[in-house]
Specification:
heterotrimer, A mainly alpha (about 675), B alpha/beta (about 325), C alpha/beta (about 250), B: about 325 residues, alpha/beta, Rossmann fold, 2 domains, 9-stranded mixed beta sheet, about 25% strand, elongated, C: about 250 residues, 6 helices, globular
Chain lengths: ~675, ~325, ~250
């Protein structure tokens, strides 16, 4: 009768094995918990408070999705399969041990077919684990991808875990070699190994000795791994799911939190560890050093001094090294922003969102970077060009330093005149945006956009010189006060207007209007990007296109339209409706590579780069056979990519077209 | 009531400044109507020889060791009794680091009106001054019976202020110059310039529109292709994107090249006054209303970044051919 | 060290300027007013001096619309006292009248140094700083781009053309006309300015209005009619570049 035997083959000469096991495991667990607590309490002792306890049910759902099923990790095939093989196996082993404990003390249900199934499943997962571990060893020691940190601690972890699993298999195999039950092949791997022992011809007594030895080794190793968990690379096993549990819910990706304490008049700036929230410090400890964020970062790829992975690890290391000093002591060496993490590093970020999309444990890199930028801005530590742009935004409401009255100069060529939304009610209020209004190189695109809207018979108007920069990039550059001021002015201007919907061709304005301007984000006035609008107009028949342009094009998903706001299909439908064929770049959709202008970078000095993000993107586009045009849906993209086409010498090869220009040509 | 036009001569380390001749020419114009004399006032130490080419009816020379270099207090102490005693119609001072330092103090001490930033004097007693970066001109009649005027280069030519024959010089005794609260301790020379831009025939000059230090390289490439040198207006130098030796303007150098290519320079008066002697000025600017286009022979209204590299390539090709 | 900085607002040249109906004054109804650039440098230099040598910085300016923001920004940088002169308008008054108004207030403060921008672009009768020195009976040095203090003496760096600097020793109290501060005016985050609005107060001094309108000796203001205009080249960048090469050949540069 197949059944599980507790502590088979373990002598009770020195007392009951049960008490030894529970004793050792208990002590190890306690040691683990104490060390964990000592590490974890730094989060809330050093970091500032933040509320992340709402929506428990949603949070649990996130843990299931990201920490158990591990969907993020599976987005890359090799490491994905490798990691779930290791992780799911251990989930199974954990469950197996839990079931064994229930069987041992409460209901003895591991008997008969239940027991056989139990053994089969565990053995299979043990094999799966070994495959996963082999994949991991091969990856880390032979393939050596650059995004991984090459430290012995990682090798020790996988070796330890493998030895634990092998220990379990060997113990089982030795028992099977002695017992040789009829159902031994329900533990296929164990039984296979058992044949080796049997073939040695040693006595049962020797096998029992070996069994005890391996069993003790297995127990000791598990104990060691538990004790070293808080300081080793396996800490993520606990902090990862914890981090997922406490991640942002109910907040759209494109909405930043205001400066903590600002409303009360005591703003907290993240200059030192004390200015970061406990969650941001947890981020540091949750990082598995996988480097996916670094691989996805356009700044890192272009040679700028930013690695999102390194920023998070710097926070972790700073907390480890200095966190034990409580607040009130000399804060100088705790200086993060501009100190441990250099100003140039923080200023290199384009806020494109690729890093937060890749992270398997849902670390929020961008929030930390923006928080630290806020400190630098408050201290006046920003380069002259950015200073000038921000000063211009403050004084003139646009980064070009031109008068407000010049904002609508681009409309002079139009007949009939565009309605002034401040003076008469309109159905669609077109928020034009700085670049589309002021940049001379983009006037043509803006005019064509207007003509398309007019052709569609839309009732629309603009704010003329009542419009101000929406503030998306000022906010992400860390000038929160300036963002608030711009938002106030825009809100005041919009408050006097009568309109139903807002449209804009600028994804940055779109993002902040939709997600951060509360009177819009509460849904009262839907906001559409021109891509969405054109899609609607075309499918409803309000806009008739000839549909025979016949170009072979590729489409670049703007960061603030795609990754941040999930609009991928609408612009593609529009492109197809003009009669063009779309060939996708390798990095497309939510993997699209940023042009490098966001986060205020378009206002900053460039510094030394290996290859600009925009140039890298153009090079990607020209590899597509037969494609002679890149279609974009953002004014800054038009500007960045047209420059990059020139600097990479591709003027004859690739034409950059705005979506509205394409539609205009197809009218 | 006086009818004479007094001109306070500006000089630095043995050289008479150009503005002095401009003022002498303006004074000459004025006295046609007032019927007085053009009197140059020269303060200095062993500097009488500087008067030899001044186009004045008379030169009043004040000699004192403390007048070797320009000290605002000292000049004011000397000029005050001189002007009070002689009661000229106008006293012309440069709108410069010398003249503008003393004009205000003299105006208050003498209780005389002050007309500043004047670019033209006319024989009927009218003046024209420029304000708001040269965008606005203001016209009026010189206040009576006497007034101080600070002048900028503009209408009057310095050649018209130079004389073929040396004028008559009268020595004037200075008042006691103790109790001066300002002293010169030393001059600090600018960093050794790799090049003297006032002697270069081809200048590629950049202004605020170049946007950042990295872009200056584009101008360097063009300059190299043309065999010229890169210079700049004040905003570029203030940001340290180029050395001070490359500054063209009122506080920099006056240049007289064969070609002055002004890229992203709006044409403010302080800059323009230093380039009027250029043979050919070509201006590239995005703003069609930029004052530089009123001075340049050829102009291009374009975003400079669309043109520079194309131009550099074509120049290289033309030279290589 | 007691430092007083006098500042004023001037029309922003970014906007299009126009002449009013009288034909003799600027039309200020639509003009935006911003702090005069060299006054902004004077404020910055004052703060720098305080940071280096200690003391107090007082900012004094006429009460024109928009001056509050300038004051609070100065406070956010570290200015200690802010003073608005009511009944005085920089837009309406001559430099002489302004200087006379400043003189009374400044002398009360008994400053060691008075800093002013070396000139404002709309000055018609001289710069406020040099006139103020006259009214206060203090020495004046203008076109200064650096100040340091030693043993009660101020050492100023006076700019001459072509990069030459003269180092002058001045015995305080003195007025200094600032051309440029030792570093460009620093950026102050909007939130800090807003904070200063709450924590700082601007003292107000009412002065009797002095009859001295600006532009007293001006009969007419007008925009210059250029005698000539450049021959404009048009076309694609490629075409323009070709035309330029031709011109450069003609004049003998190529």
């Amino acid at each position: 009768m197949p059944e599980r035997i507790d502590y088979w083959g373990i002598p009770d000469a020195w007392g009951s094995p049960q008490w030894w096991v529970y004793g050792v495991m208990g002590l190890s667990a306690m040691w683990l918990l104490i060390r964990l607590y000592l590490q974890a309490r730094l989060w809330w002792q050093v970091g500032r408070p933040e509320v992340r306890w709402d929506g428990i049910d949603v949070r649990i759902g996130l843990v299931v999705k990201y920490a158990i099923v591990q969907t993020r990790i599976l987005t890359q095939k090799y490491p994905g399969v490798m990691h779930v093989a290791i992780a799911w196996s251990f989930f199974m082993f954990f469950m197996g041990t839990a079931l064994a404990t229930i069987d041992s003390h409460f209901i003895a249900f591991l008997r008969g077919n239940v027991y056989l199934l139990y053994k089969l499943v565990l053995d299979s997962f043990a094999l799966l684990f070994v495959i996963g571990a082999a994949m991991a060893a091969y990856r880390r020691l032979v393939l050596r991808p650059s995004r991984l940190t090459a430290r012995p601690a990682f090798t020790w972890s996988i070796v330890a875990l493998t030895l634990i699993v092998l220990g379990g298999l060997l113990t089982e195999s030795l028992r099977l070699a002695v017992e040789r039950p009829a159902w031994e092949w329900w533990s296929p791997v164990g039984a296979l190994i058992a044949t080796v022992w049997i073939s040695t011809g040693v006595s049962d007594a020797t096998l029992m000795q070996w069994h005890l030895g391996v069993w003790l080794f297995h127990l000791a190793l598990v104990s060691v791994v538990l004790i070293t968990l808080p300081v080793g690379t396996l800490l993520h096993v606990l902090t990862g799911p914890l981090n997922v549990f406490f991640s942002k819910i109910d907040t759209p990706k494109g909405r930043l939190a205001p400066i903590p304490g600002a409303a009360a008049g005591t703003p907290i700036y993240a200059g030192t560890l004390h200015g970061l929230s406990w969650k941001q410090l947890l981020d540091g400890n949750a990082c598995t050093e996988c480097g996916r964020c670094q691989d996805a970062c356009p700044a890192y790829a272009s040679g700028m001094p930013l690695s999102p992975k390194q920023v998070i690890l710097d926070i972790r290391d700073a907390l480890r090294a200095h966190g034990h000093r409580l607040p009130g002591t000399d804060a100088d060496w705790l200086l993060l922003a501009g100190g441990i993490i250099k100003g140039d590093t923080l200023w290199s970020c384009t806020t494109c969102g690729a890093c937060i999309q890749e992270c398997p444990v849902l670390i929020e890199h961008i929030d930390a970077i923006v928080d630290m930028r806020r400190y630098l801005v408050a201290e006046g530590q920003l380069d002259g060009q950015l200073q000038e742009a921000l000063a211009n935004l403050g004084r003139y409401g646009n980064s070009f330093g031109q008068a407000e009255r010049a904002r609508a100069r681009w409309t002079q060529a139009l007949d009939p005149k565009i309605k002034d939304a401040r003076r008469e009610p309109v159905e669609y209020l077109w928020f034009v945006g700085d670049y589309a209004s002021y940049s001379p190189a983009l006037t043509g695109v803006t005019l064509k956009t207007a003509q398309v809207l007019q052709k569609a018979g839309l009732d629309f108007g603009i704010l003329y010189d009542g419009e101000r920069n929406a503030g998306n990039d000022a906010r992400r550059a860390g000038e929160e006060g300036l963002y608030e001021m711009l938002a106030e002015k825009n809100a005041a201007a919009l408050g006097h207007c009568t309109y139903e919907k807002i449209i804009t061709s600028d994804p940055h304005s779109y993002n902040t209007l939709r997600n951060e301007y509360s009177f819009i984000s509460n849904g009262r006035h839907p906001i559409l990007h021109t891509a969405e609008l054109l899609d609607q107009l075309i499918s409803s028949g309000a806009l008739n296109l000839r549909g025979n342009l016949g170009y072979k094009v590729t489409y670049h998903d703007p960061c603030y339209l795609g990754r941040y706001n999930g609009i991928y299909e609408a612009p593609r439908r529009v492109i197809r409706a003009t009669g063009c064929e779309i060939v996708e770049m390798p990095r497309h959709g939510n993997r699209a590579a940023c042009c490098g202008a966001g986060g205020g970078r378009i206002w900053m000095k460039e510094g030394e780069v290996r290859e600009r993000p925009s140039e890298s993107r153009v090079q990607e586009a020209v590899t597509l056979p037969g494609v002679d045009s890149m279609v974009v849906a953002c004014p800054k993209d038009v500007s960045m990519f047209r420059d990059a086409v020139k600097t990479t010498g591709n003027e004859e090869r690739l034409v950059v077209r705005d979506l509205a220009e394409l539609v205009h040509a197809a009218l | 009531m006086g009818a004479d036009a007094y001109v306070v001569i500006e000089h630095l380390r043995g050289q008479v400044a150009d503005i002095s001749y401009v003022m002498l020419a303006a004074a000459r114009e004025l006295v046609q109507g007032s019927g007085g004399k053009v009197v140059a006032i020269l303060l200095g130490h062993k500097a009488k020889d500087l008067s030899t080419d001044l186009s004045a009816d008379e030169v009043l020379y004040v000699e004192h060791a403390d007048l070797q270099d320009f000290i605002p207090d000292a000049y004011q102490a000397v000029l005050l009794p001189l002007i009070k005693q002689n009661q000229p119609r106008v006293v012309l001072l440069g709108n410069t680091t010398i003249g503008a330092d003393i004009a205000g103090g003299l105006s208050v001490a003498l209780d005389l009106p002050l007309v500043s930033s004047c670019r033209q004097l006319m024989s009927d007693g009218k003046f024209v001054c420029q304000i708001c970066g040269g965008k606005i001109l203001a016209e009026g009649n010189l206040p009576e019976p006497a007034t101080l005027v600070t002048m900028t280069p503009g209408v009057h030519r310095s050649d018209d202020g130079k004389a073929a024959a040396p004028p008559h010089v009268t020595d004037v005794q200075p008042p006691a110059l103790e109790a001066l609260r300002t002293h010169l301790s030393k001059y600090i020379e600018p960093e050794a310039a790799d090049v003297d831009i006032s002697k270069e025939p081809v200048l590629i000059s950049v202004g605020r529109g170049i946007q950042n230090k990295d872009n200056v390289e584009l101008a360097e490439d063009l300059a190299k292709a043309l065999g010229g040198v890169v210079t700049a207006s004040r905003p570029v130098i203030d940001q340290s994107w180029l050395a001070t030796s490359r500054l063209v303007g009122k506080s920099g150098k006056h240049v007289k090249p064969k070609l002055y290519l002004a890229i992203g320079i709006s044409g403010a008066p302080e800059h323009v006054e230093a380039i009027t002697d250029s043979e050919t000025i070509i201006a590239i600017n995005q703003d069609p209303a930029a004052p530089i286009f009123d001075l340049a022979k050829y102009g291009v209204e374009i975003d400079m970044f669309e043109l520079i590299e194309v131009l550099t390539a074509k120049v290289k090709a033309a030279r290589g051919a | 060290m007691n430092i007083a900085v006098v500042a004023k607002l001037v029309p922003d040249l970014v906007e299009e300027l126009s002449i009013d109906a009288s034909g003799a004054k600027l039309d200020t109804s639509f003009a935006r007013f911003i702090v005069s650039e060299s006054d902004d440098h004077a404020i910055e230099e004052g703060i720098l001096l305080k940071e280096r040598f200690g003391g107090q910085v007082t900012i004094i300016a006429p009460d024109d619309e928009g001056i509050d923001d300038v004051m609070y920004t100065a406070a956010a940088k570290g200015a200690d006292r802010l003073m608005k002169l009511k009944g005085i308008s920089a837009a309406e008054m001559s430099s002489h009248a302004l200087a006379r108004a400043f003189a009374d207030v400044v002398s009360e403060l008994k400053p060691d140094l008075v800093l002013a921008g070396v000139q404002a672009h709309n000055d018609l009768d001289g710069s406020v700083g040099s006139l103020l020195a006259g009214f206060l009976g203090m020495p004046y040095v203008g076109y200064v781009s650096g100040i340091s203090m030693q043993d009660g003496q101020a050492t100023v760096r006076k700019e001459y053309p072509a990069g030459l600097i003269a180092e002058l020793q001045v015995t305080p109290p003195a007025v200094v006309g600032i051309q440029a501060a030792e570093q460009p005016p620093r950026y102050v985050a909007v939130s800090k300015v807003r904070q200063a609005m709450k924590s700082s107060t601007i003292e107000e001094r009412a002065l009797t209005v002095v009859e001295a309108p600006a532009a007293q000796h001006i009969d007419r203001m007008f925009k210059p009619e250029p005698a000539q205009h450049a021959t404009m080249l048009a076309g694609t960048p490629d075409e323009i570049a070709s035309k330029l090469v031709e011109i450069l050949r003609e004049i003998g540069v190529i």
